[in-house]
Amino acid sequence: MPEFTVPGLSNSDSSTLVETLQKRLTACNDLHLTLKHVHWNVVGPNFISVHEMLDPQVELVRGYADVLAERIATLGGSPVGTMGANADHRSWDDYSLGRDTAQAHLGALDKVYDGMIGDHRKAIAVAGEVDPVTEDILIGQTAELEKFQWFVRAHLENASGSLPTADDATEADDATEKGAARDATA
């Protein structure tokens, strides 16, 4: 239990929010590192457009982590952002692609954003029950994450408006399919 919280919130509600925000902080730390990893490892004809598209996303997601950590502290919690804690507290597998084409990375990132946005929306629902300030922070972040996913999908989408990765369940599924297709043409 926190020793203090913001006026108008019970310690119990604050604890729930801190736990929820810590999960989102871990996810934001992971996402900004994943985006930077893609930035360093993307290759192929669309390299420069993807490479340059990712830097603003990295910076904004780093900022989200800072906002979430500061909200945790405001609520009386102690934000944890160490690499070890991030690895221990995440519920997803590590990003699986290394050096690969823009299309392969973007297909995988689409799935990463699916998970990130879905979990942010769950956190919005939790916050919406007890704290409109925290809810507002998460809503603003989610809107921008959805826009980032749209940028990614714009690179993947074909002229008929469909995504070749739509049926993939995870980024690893997409990476496997892209690798198999690339190997078949080599």
List key phrases describing it.
single chain; 186 residues; mainly alpha; two-stranded parallel ribbon; 6 helices; 2 strands; elongated; disordered C terminus
Q: Would you give an account of this structure?
A:
The protein is an all-alpha fold. It has helices at residues 11-41, 47-74, 83-89, 102-130, 132-156, 171-185; strands at 42-43, 100-101. Strands 1-2 form a two-stranded parallel sheet. The termini are far apart.
Helical fraction: over 70%
3D shape: elongated
Distance between the termini: 58 Å
Rg on CA atoms, Å: 18 Å
State the major sheet.
2 strands, parallel
Approximately how much beta-strand content do the residues carry? under 5%
H and E string: HEHHEHHH
- What's the mean pLDDT score? 89
SS-based class: mainly alpha
Q: Give the beta-strand count.
A: 2
Strand order of the largest sheet: 1-2
The number of helical runs is 6
pLDDT < 50 runs, ≥5 residues: 178-186
